[in-house]
Amino acid sequence: MKIKIPEEVAIISIGMTGPDATQYSTPPITAIDIPSEQIAAAAISILYKSLSQKNLHERLLPVHQKIAPTTYIRASFPLPPDDKP
């Protein structure tokens, strides 16, 4: 059974290891790279700031921080004709 990529199935790799290996498959696989080092640095910074608060209420306040992933669009994911790079 042969499946046509991306005509029948789109494939996306999501991970923290970098997108390099996905570019060598046939077809090259679209990758979403999650910046683990940035996430770890932000977590440590938030924890440090929280622990330095003298007021217990301020220590327990939720913190929201957005860290954007990097997307590498390749041949394994179909794009509408208007969105092609």
Top keywords for this entry?
alpha+beta, 3-stranded mixed sheet, 3 strands, 85 residues
General description of the model:
The longest helix has 16 residues, at 36-51. The chain is of the alpha+beta class. The protein has helices spanning 36-51, 56-59, and strands at residues 12-15, 30-33, 70-72. It starts with 11 loop residues before the first strand and ends in a 13-residue tail after the last strand. The chain has a three-stranded mixed beta sheet, with no helix packed on it. It contains two helices and three strands, in the order ββααβ.
Brief account:
With 85 residues, the protein is of the alpha+beta class. It is 24% helix and 13% strand. The chain has 2 helices and 3 strands.
Q: How many H/I helical runs?
A: 2
Unreliable runs, pLDDT <50, ≥5 residues? none
How is the largest sheet built, in terms of strand order?
1-2-3
- Taken as a percent bin, the fraction of beta residues is 5-15%
Rg estimate, integer Å: 19 Å
Report the order of strands and helices.
Answer: EEHHE
Structural shape: elongated
> Roughly what percent helix?
10-25%
Average pLDDT works out at 85
Structural class label: alpha+beta
Biggest sheet layout: 3 strands, mixed
How many strands appear in the DSSP assignment? 3
Distance between the termini: 31 Å
